[in-house]
Amino acid sequence: MDWKRKIKGNKKGSMTVYVLLFATTLIILVSFYIVAAENEMVKASAYSLGDLWADSILGEYDSELYSKYGIFAYYGDESLVAAKVQFLVDYTFKHKNYASCNVEDVIIYDYTLAKTDNLLEQIREVSAIDSVSESVSTSETGLVRYDDGTGQSGEPRVISNQSTINSLPSTGRTNNGLLDRAGEFLKSLTSVKDIIRTGTDEFLINKYIQNYFRNSYYTKPNLDGFLYAEQEYIIAGRYSDEQNRKAVRNRIIAMREVMNTLYLESDAEKQELILAAATVITGGTAPEEAALAISAAWALAESVNDYELLIRGKPVPVMKTKESWAVSIENVIDNIGSGCIDTGNQSGDDYNDYIVYMLCLMDDNTKLLRIMDLIQINMRLRYRDDFLISDHYVGVGYALNANGEVYEFNAKYKE
What we know:
Layout: H1 2-58, H2 63-69, E1 74-75, H3 78-92, E2 101-107, H4 116-136, E3 144-145, H5 162-166, H6 178-187, H7 201-212, E4 218-219, H8 230-236, H9 241-266, H10 268-282, H11 287-310, H12 329-333, H13 351-360, H14 364-382, E5 392-393, E6 395-402, E7 405-412
Antiparallel strand pairs: 1-5, 2-6, 3-4, 6-7
Helix pairs in contact: 1-3, 4-7, 6-9, 7-14, 8-9, 8-14, 9-11, 10-11
C-alpha cells in the first residue's frame, strides 16, 4: 500500500514540474512578445513622429523676418536644434523605460539662409504669394515721390561700423563689367518691358527688390529701411546713400550716352549741324576730328539732362526721337549749363525702369547677396542688433536612433 501511495505522490510531483515548466516557458514567451511589441511600438512611434518633430523646429520661424520680408527662417545652431528635438523625443517617451531614443547627426548648415540658392527658393515663394495678393487687392499701393529730384529729405545714411560691414554676406564679392555689358544690352531692346520673361528667376528677384526695397526717389509707403537708396545699394554696393546715388547716376548717364550717340549717328540733320559746327571751330582744317568730339559732348550733355528728367519723375525713351531730344548744339558748343530741359515728352521709361535695366546687367548671385545685406542691416536696426542672416535656416535634417534602429528625417519650408 505504501508503494502505491509513493508512486501516486511522484506522479503529482511530476505534473507540478511540467506545469511549472510550461508556465515558465509561456511567461518567457509572453515577455519576449511584450518586449518585441514595445520595441516595435517605439520604432513605429519614432518613425511616424520624426517628421513632426522636424516640422516643430520649422514652426519656430522668425516672425519679424517673415512680417517684413515674407521669408520663413528659424534661428538656431546644430546643438540648439539637437537639444530641442531631444526634448520632444524625451517628452514623448517619458515613463517608458523600454524606450531608448537619441537624436544624432543634426545637419542644418546646408539650409542656411546665407546660401543664395536657399534665399532664391524663399523669394520664389514670396513672389507667388505676392502675385495672388496683388491680383485680389483693390487698394492702390503705387509709388510715392519724395520731392522734385533731390532725393528723400534728411541726411544721407552711411554704414560706418566696420564690424557691421565685415558681417555683411556680400563682403568681398564684386560685380565687375556691368557697364561693359550695357551697350549691347540696350541696343537689343526698346523698353524695360521687353527684357525679362515673366516667371523667370531673374524676373522674380527683380520684382522682389522692387516690392521690398526703396530707391532714392520712389518708394512704397510701408518701406522704411536704414538706407534711403536701397535699390541703388544692390546695384553699386557702396556703404553710403550718397555714394550709391552717385554711382547709379554715373551708370544711367553712361547707359544713356550709348543710346544718344546711336541716335545722333542716325539723324542726318544733326550730323549736318555737327559737321558745320566742327568746320567753323577748326577753320576747315580738321572737321572730322572735331565732329567726333562735338558728337561725344552733345551725347553726354543730353544724357545728363536725361538723368535730371528721370529723377524728376519724367520718362525718357530708350531710343530718342527728334521730339524727345532736349539739348541744343549751341548749348554744347558754348558750354552753357542747361539745368533741366523738359520737352514735354510723355513716352519712355522712368527712373524705376532704369533701375531694372541695371539690375538686369548684374548676375543674380550678387543681387541675392546684397538683398541679404539689406535684410540684415534693417533687421539689426528695427529688431535685434546681433541679427545675422547666417544664423537663420530654412530647413533641418537629423538622424534618430530608436532602440538600435536609425531613421533619418528632413524638413524644409515649402518650395
